[in-house]
């Protein structure tokens, strides 16, 4: 049977960079799912102190520097033998008896070597309405609502952004009729719409101005920036 020292991995600088690149993803997932979700990144460089990133660690009582779990060791051993991780999603319990739904992904470094694990643990021991509440908008902070256009094509994204910009500019009485097209173009520029290749053609056609005029506006905005 493999010992912990047998499974430890010698890291390269690139391996550490790859692992650290997942830190921001851990924060993002924990923020998205909510306070009942623990996200953990393990490093195989030191299995005795494998936890290198943890968000909401109070659910399992762990912190940075905690060791790998026995299940983590089994998954690592299985991965090195077969290239697979089973189970990928599973139910388990914390040492306090809390029911957790978990999922684990092996992270690979140079030459496909396993360098760590990305784990998500959802604490299901709380009343379900309490968990759901964290996934719903807080009406007391409705200003946190953000508009986002989900489209199947870049053209749709541009059209929807343009429609929104037109409405916003039309509602601003401080903008003269002569300055509306320039204001619309500036708003689209500030929102990054002209990073899409079709934007100039679509905007010029919808606004009834030449592409040259749009390019002129964009040069002006870029120089200001």
UniProtKB/TrEMBL annotation:
Residues 159-219 form the Transcriptional regulator DauR-like HTH domain. Signal peptide: none annotated. Residues 20-125 form the YheO-like domain. This is YheO-like PAS domain protein. PANTHER family: TRANSCRIPTIONAL REGULATOR DAUR. It comes from the Bacteria. It holds the Pfam family HTH_22. InterPro entries: DauR-like, DauR-like_HTH, YheO.
């Amino acid at each position: 049977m493999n010992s912990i020292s047998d499974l430890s991995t010698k890291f390269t600088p690139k391996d550490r960079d790859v692992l650290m690149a997942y830190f921001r993803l851990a924060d993002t997932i924990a923020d998205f799912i909510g306070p009942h979700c623990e996200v953990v990144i393990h490093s195989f460089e030191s299995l005795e102190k494998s936890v290198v990133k943890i968000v909401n660690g109070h659910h399992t009582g762990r912190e940075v520097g905690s060791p790998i779990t026995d299940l983590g060791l089994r998954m690592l051993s299985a991965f090195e033998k077969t290239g697979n991780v089973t189970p990928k999603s599973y139910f388990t319990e914390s040492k306090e008896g809390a029911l957790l739904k978990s999922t684990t992904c092996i992270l690979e470094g140079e030459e496909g070597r396993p360098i760590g694990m990305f784990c998500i643990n959802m604490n299901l021991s709380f009343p379900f309405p309490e968990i759901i509440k964290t996934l719903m908008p807080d009406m007391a902070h409705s200003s946190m609502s953000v508009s986002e256009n989900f489209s199947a094509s870049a053209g749709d994204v541009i059209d929807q952004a343009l429609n929104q910009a037109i409405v916003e500019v039309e509602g601003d009485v401080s903008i003269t009729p002569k300055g509306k097209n320039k204001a619309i173009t500036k708003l689209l520029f500030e929102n990054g719409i002209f990073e899409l290749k079709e934007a100039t053609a679509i905007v010029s056609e919808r606004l009834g101005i030449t592409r040259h005029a749009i390019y002129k506006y964009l040069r002006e905005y870029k120089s200001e920036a």
